[in-house]
Amino acid sequence: MKKTLQSKFSVLIQEFLEHRNIMGSSAVEYHSKLLNFDRFCLEYFPDESILTQEIAFAWCNDAKGNGGTNRARVIRGFARYMLLTGAEAFVMPPSFYPQQKSKLPFIMNNTEAQKFFEATDRYPGSGQNPLLQYTVPVIFRLMYAGGMRPQEVRRLRCVDLNFRDSTIYISEGKHNKDRCLPVNSDVMEMCRKYNGIAETINPKRAYFFQSLAGSVYTPQWLEGIFKICWEMSGNPVGRGSCNPYMFRHNFATQTLMRWVEEGRNLEAMIPYLSAYMGHEDFASTYYYIHLLPERLARMDFTRSDGVIPEVSAYEEEH
């Protein structure tokens, strides 16, 4: 990446992408878009080191079709980062390039969830990484059952899981919110058995899900494994945004559905769900309520049979 960036913005672009990775945000789209921005500036604004309104608008208007909207989002993020570093930059107002309506998240029913997790159980082993075939089923089940953000699960340290009281500590979550999550005992037992296997294979690991390099797995790795398992499951792909983050959406929606079935007052319960999920405000949690009406008919996921495997399946191999 460093060798291909050549404009006067190259250093700040590289630092911005590294910043997004450190914060656990995917830099895939930003990488390609800002590489294009760097080339655009090198050709049309080779002597400019200040992100001006003229440069921002020129680059967005140069896009084909609806690409200007995506470029506007990227350049706004980059401009805000530049301001944080003390550099001068024009931050384009969102109204200049309105965001396209995002696809609703994919909400799985119980059959779809079971098919997906059966696919994770079939994920092939790797001679190079003998822990991989155990990591794939557990990491996605933990996301599904715990409602954590993908980056929070990827960054879990071994010391963050307390098997005595079935809690998981999330440190430095989004908005720098630390929180301690009570987790279903069956899920924690699954994690405990996985931890035993992992300690046998890699006794000195620091992270609960640790890559061969000794670090956390990258967002790209998680997304790649997810896509493979989703294709293996045979589940549909055209009913919403389908990616690892959807497990968090599923957790929130299932929790609300369970409360509806139990006759609980959602207004009174929202603060509890908001605190558990680490939302900055209640508005982020209320988002999930509008997902409920059109999905009531196909939500048969209030049971988790077949999703969390019997612990004996892990004990038999180790």
Could you describe the 3D structure shown?
This protein is mainly α. The protein folds into two domains: 87 residues; 206 residues, hpI Integrase, Chain A. Helices cover 50% and strands 3% of the residues. The protein is built from 13 helices and three strands, in the order αααααααβββαααααα. It has a three-stranded antiparallel beta sheet with strand order 1-2-3, with no helix packed on it. β1 and β2 form a beta hairpin. α3 packs antiparallel against α4, α6 packs across α10 and α10 packs antiparallel against α11.
What is this structure's SSE topology?
Elements: H1 10-22, H2 28-44, H3 53-61, H4 67-84, H5 110-121, H6 132-146, H7 150-154, E1 161-162, E2 167-170, E3 179-182, H8 185-201, H9 219-233, H10 246-261, H11 266-277, H12 282-286, H13 312-315
Antiparallel strand pairs: 1-2, 2-3
Helix pairs in contact: 3-4, 5-6, 5-9, 6-8, 6-10, 10-11
